[in-house]
Amino acid sequence: MNAREPKLVTVPLVDLHPTQISVGMREVAIKRQGWRQEKTDKASLYLGKHLIPVILGSQEQPYVLDHHHLCRALLDEGVEKVAITVIANLSKLEDDHFWFVMDNRGWMHPFDEKGDRQSYQAIPSDLKGLKNDSYRSLAGALRRSGGYAKDTTPFSEFLWADYLRRQFNGEDIEKDFDAALKKSLVLARQKQASYLPGWCGPLSSNA
Predict the structure, then answer these.
(1) Which residues pair with 53 in a beta bridge?
(2) Domains in the chain: how many in total?
């Protein structure tokens, strides 16, 4: 995902296209709060440190490769433009071939808010169309609480969200998020989670 000659330009947030179907809206709310704390006198510096990596599709439309939560938060906060860095230019490809390449390079995550894989047509055309996945919010909170380490694996938090999705009912998250997080901290250390990126479980062979 490293570009040989990265280009740095600014684009309107409304022109950015997602490469996933859902986000954790609690995570978006946290990003919004972080922006409010920075925007008074450090707005330019903050945005400059958060370049949005994109893939160029048909007619050089920018498709977000990472930082979907931040982009949605900034959009909701009324920010008009962000700086992007172009990772790859696939603008010459037809739509089906474009999404085939995106899928094979791990540059898209076509799973809905229930964790079910969908066709690329289900990916919303803009950031406002992103759906809420409570498990993704829980996975983000779990990482910040030390449940697992930050990892460069693409969509690593969605892998954790999928693991948690299989462990308990999502209604518990909405009823009592703190209790769900406490339970997740226990689940995160179990050996059955050792395949996940950033796993920080017990090293003992008896664990």
Answers:
(1) 85
(2) 2
pLDDT value at 162 more than 50: yes
Where is average pLDDT lowest: 90-99, 124-133, 163-172?
163-172
Distances (CA, A) of 108 to 56, 114, 122, 146, 201: 13, 17, 12, 26, 28
How many other β-carbons are positioned within 10 Å of the β-carbon of residue 27? 24
Residue 56 belongs to domain spanning = 8-132
Q: What's the CATH number where 23 sits?
A: 3.90.1530.10
Same structural domain for residues 88 and 119? Answer: yes
Angle at which helices 134-144 and 177-187 pack, to 10 degrees? 60
Nearest to 136 by CA among 108, 111, 117: 111
CA 23 to CA 69: how far, in whole Å? 6
In a domain, 97, yes or no: yes
Q: In the chain, what is the greatest distance between 2 CA atoms, to the nearest angstrom?
A: 56
